[in-house]
Amino acid sequence: MDHSVLSAPLTAKDFASDEEVRWCPGCGDYAILKSMQKALVKIGARPETTVFVSGIGCASRFPYYMNTYGFHTIHGRAPAIATGAKLANPDLDIWVITGDGDGLSIGGNHLLHVLRRNIDLQVLLFNNEIYGLTKGQSSPTSRLGTRSPSTPNGSIESPVSPLIFALGSGANFVARAVDVSQVSLQVTLERAHAYKGAAFVEIFQNCIVYNDGVFNDFTERNLSSDRQIHVQHGQPLIYGKNKDIGLKLDHKTLCLESVKLGRGESKESDLIIHDERNRMLAVMLASMRPPDLPMALGVILCDPVDSISKAAPSNRRDSWTDDLNKLMRAGHTWTVGT
Amino acid sequence: MSRSSLISVECNENAQQRKQVSSAVVRFAGDSGDGMQLTGGQFTLSTATQQNNLLTFPDFPAEIRAPIGTTFGVSSFQINFGSREIRTAGDRLDCLVAMNPAALKVEIGKLKPGGVLIVDTGAFSERNYKRAGYKNNPLEGDSLNQFTVINLDISAATIAALKGHNLSKKESLRCKNLWALGLTYYLYGRDRDPTVKWLRQKFSGRNDLAAANIAVLHAGYKVADSSEFPTQFTTFQVGPADEMAAGVYRAVTGSDALAWGLSAGSHLADLKMIFASYPITPASPLLHSLASMEVDDIVTFQAEDEIAAICAAIGASYAGSLGVTSSSGPGISLKTEGLGLAVSAELPLIVVNSQRSGPSTGMPTKTEQSDLFQALFGRSSDSPVVVLAPFSPGDCFTIAIEAIRIAISYMTPVIILTDTFIANASEPWLIPDVNKLDPIEVKFCSTTEGFHPYRRGTERLDRPWVKPGTPGLEHRIGGLERDYDSGKISYEPDNHHKMTVTRYNKVKCVRDYIGPQTVTRGPQSGKVAVVGWGSTYGPISRAVDNLLQRGMDVSHIHLRNLWPLPKNLKQLLANYETVLVIEANLGQLLFLIKGYCLIDAKGFNKVSGQPFMISEVEEAIIDVYRF
Ligand code: SF4
Known about the structure:
The structure holds two protein chains of two kinds. Chain A has helices spanning about 5, 30-45, 80-90, 100-105, 110-115, 160-170, 180-195, 215-220, 220-225, 280-285, 310, 320-330; strands at about 50-55, 70, 95-100, 120-125, 175-180, 200-205, 230, 240, 245-250, 255-260, 295-300, 335. Chain A is of the alpha/beta class.
């Protein structure tokens, strides 16, 4: 094997597999795939140590399109399979790809536990608020009133918030991005990768076939700046076309409120400074919903703590045969004959 | 009946002549909180160090501390030991220790006429015997006349023995099991030293408790060994076993042997083992044993559920380690989907099923063999796996290594079907030297030339095992069907047929590894062949031996390989006029033998949660023999 070739700088193309992409034309997954390939180049990832593990659903076809190691597993179980792989080989760089149905319905339990165990891997949840691959049924993130073949009169179940779920599960890295916002998505992926522990990223992904435009209320070009806030650690929470809206804590209600900045109005110093290590703030930011408050995007929580796989030693004990022999002979033994 | 006075205690070890017996069955029974498992465990330890052959049978309720004095809360421990080879926990009891009326009620039916019954009269208050369902005090009527009853107020004797020990009455009474143990030690000429040592170790740091327990053990022993003890009670002598091969032995349970076998196997393969499981009775001791090993290359992972446990094991094998998961029937049901993935992804995987009585929650602490169909067929589609069954606690060690060898060389999941009896029972075990076992060859693929993930070996049809991290071999696998020639996703009709047949044939190839089925005992052809698998080995082999001695034409064929079945099985069974399949289910192996060997076999089945008795096996054989 020619090592000079192996260590040559890679391009996004090097991370694209020769498998024909089978998503619907116009699906948000394409944009995420592109961003991922670029992010891996930026990170300096190696194809041979990178592993994509997925469950079942449109999103879970992702590994086939990456020229890395990939395991397309069973519905909802990718976090458990990835956990086993990471315990086996902590040197692997593992990305779990899941969707709202895969990760929060059938696999909700596994997602909870991979996050609370803080296994060192990245979980990307492509949220399109619908079941795509099974033809459009409502999902656990579908909003009230969502009409679908399984809810013809509109869904009557409250949706789960992926980020609040992740925070409640004890995730220490929680971020959010939009499929087509290439730059911020890429940066978010890089940040998730840099985090040592379980990094959870919700990606709003448009399903052009079964739920087209479901995020338009904050992704439409003319609305996005007023309805999205890209949070930055250490920076005041400011957004808006003219950067003249900020987020402030109402001390009486302990709620966030959106305030206008300017003369005679609020000052920048009244605003909350984003602190990635503040879990309470993360919960508040993750709970915001347009139109009253903007959709929070970027790294909402990043609280470095020890991850299991970081803590686990992986050195082999040479004397294991002797140890096992000793172990089996510990306690009461007796000798027959000579 | 007589009652000995407990006032004066003198030692007169040689006063009584001990009766020589070749084996004896003793059962300790009491409340769940009475420490009967510990008592039995100590009796086992002492018996093992006296070089007897032995087999034990812990029989306890699923409830951790059932209400005191109830029949459903009775916890028992049975041991069969002797100078001859012991293969079962014993049919009928020679000695029963009943610590309360409920224990007497539940267990007395197992005691042989003339057998020794030791009861704690202190526990036979009106309230207690009524709670156990007796109208009158069972010790007072003549219902126990056919037994040799040793009526002792063990509770009072324990308290008396602990005078000056500064323990409360409640604390003192907690030691009464050791008084009973001391007494049985005397009756059977057991050595107290191993238990004394064990107590010192257990209560290290609490010298007062160690001293109290030891004092009570000695007190029970000395009462029997005193002139006060009625002389009509026979004491017994059971000599050391004479049929055992030379070497170093220990008593081992199936759970421990399995844990050590899995560790040895992964070491022989030079692989890290990831053992992932979820707590379930009776499989959890395996997790505990492995977790206590504290070796970096054995990682135990208590998963969030059964599904996650098998999935983590699959992930581990995918990443180039040995993935192992373990459960019992109901938990295995949940692992079914994961097993399907392992079949499709063709990864090595070990799945241990410690079978228990079912369906559903059933009787969690009782044994059964009813998950054979589940192991063979309990998945969607045609998804064959290898199924092995150990025949004894010690065999768990060997079978674990075999399972690992097969899983790796054929890139297939292997199910080890053990059961509650084997998991909990213990027997003397010739401890192997791991250094002398054959290494297990693991060939991780490293060549890029002509590589695709489903390119098969010609001999075993195994696909290459690639360790992620290997440059140039990046590939994707999963549950979707693959093209035979390129390894890419394929929905081609003919290809799917070919792949299904190939997966089936790959598992069938394992027949070459396991070799031909042999006749376990008895002639190679003849009148009756008794076929069994798993923990029925003991009772069947003993029954067949007994009948062979009586001149009957009967053979025992014991299967350790349940899928694939040995190549010659049909031919072998055809050599007998009658084939009788004995198993603790309603005829699952029988169904296989009828279906795959086209032999009109007969079945003898029992699903009571209890192991087979030798006598009932003998009767079943005699029944078919007559025709
Ligand atoms: S169904 Fe929706 S989510 Fe699935 S590939 Fe098509 S557009 Fe994408």
